[in-house]
Amino acid sequence: MQYVEVASRLLLVTVFAFALAGKVRGRRAWAGFVESLSEMAVIGRAVVPAAAVAVIAAEAAVIVLVLLPPGGAATAGFALAAVLLSCFTLAVGAVARRAAPVPCRCFGASETPVGVPHVVRNLILVTASLLGLVGSLTNGSVDPVLGSVAGILGAVLGLLMARWDDLAALLRPSWRAPHASPAGRRATFTPGRRPRAG
Fold it and tell me: Residue 14 in contact with residue 63, Cβ under 8 Å?
């Protein structure tokens, strides 16, 4: 489990570093994140600004804690990540059920609407957090070479999570495709003539 913990550390650090940087890299990015949080309508508009600050503070705390040597602080970091990501998953799931056209600004500027792919991504990250949490509670030595490989793998997976929208579009371009007509065909219309199936 020690190598799983190492991989989870680098995965979470990469993901939260990209997420944090994407939100605070400029006024426009920050305003877009706050606006998307408001449009999600999962919390009252009055508390949205405070919630946005709490999110970036929690993300920064996760980065710092999971980078600390194995022990209580690192364990707390994994636990915080699991709780934070679980909250994100519930919020994203609620928006996805409503099919509300709210852009996902988790990693900064994006026009991709929140949907099922984002729920899947968050569940993967919750799982990684829990695995890291379990690993942080076990004792054992880590081989430097194997530990480096595990860390690199975790960082690569973190990059994939950060680019999840592009990955989801590539692997499953029909996530949010419009429903086909009952006949499975598109209706066409020619001026002066009755519509016919095309």
Answer: no
Lookup: tokens for 155: 């960082």
Q: How many structural domains are present in the chain?
A: 1
The whole-chain average pLDDT of the chain stands at 80
The domain of 68 spans: 2-166
Whether residue 140 is contained in a domain is answered as yes
Q: Is residue 78 a contact partner of residue 7, using CB atoms and an 8 Å limit?
A: no
In a domain, 188, yes or no: no
Nearest-angstrom CA–CA distance, 97 and 95: 5
Give the residue, 114 or 129, on which the prediction is more confident.
Answer: 129
**Per-residue pLDDT reduced to its tens digit, 149-197:** 988 998 999 888 887 766 666 665 554 444 444 444 444 445 555 545 5
Residue 83 lies in a domain: yes
Helices (H), the chain: 2-24, 27-40, 48-67, 72-98, 116-136, 144-162, 164-171
Amino acid, res. 74? A
92 neighbors 126 (Cβ within 8 angstroms): no
Contacts of 129 (CB under 8 A, 6+ apart): 8, 12, 78, 79, 81, 82, 85
> Is residue 132 a part of any domain in this protein?
yes
8 Å CB contact between 6 and 151 = yes
Q: What are 187's strand-pairing partners?
A: 197
